[in-house]
Amino acid sequence: MRSVARLAVDHARALLKVDGAVIFSYDAEQHMLNPVAETESSTPELPTPPGEGAIGLAFESGLPVVIDDYQHWDLAQPNSAQRGIVSALAVPLIAGDQPVGALGVWTYVSRAFPAEE
Questions:
Q1: pTM exceeding the 0.90 threshold for the entire prediction
Q2: Is residue 117 in a domain?
Q3: Within a 10 A sphere around the Cβ of 15, how many other Cβ atoms?
Q4: Residue 1 pairs with which residues in a beta bridge?
């Protein structure tokens, strides 16, 4: 699973021309989203509860979450803000009709994420 997730992270990063990407997988027993693959950075991703941060909101709502100014976003996760994220997009990963995780991408400069992305 990790090798497929690594490919997806690399592909999302190249396709969207972003600085970083991460895939989280949901662990129902722990009720936690755990990072499976991510772009290397000075601050690694941490497990995230559903409903928290962009990843948790995308997972819980089943909808994309777009943040234009992550540094000033009320729900910014401290480790992500410390990394220097400026703009971010998170989308749920759904198998059948069940959420199974989330994909997040980010930039270190301001960037819009149009609906088609």
A1: yes
A2: no
A3: 11
A4: none
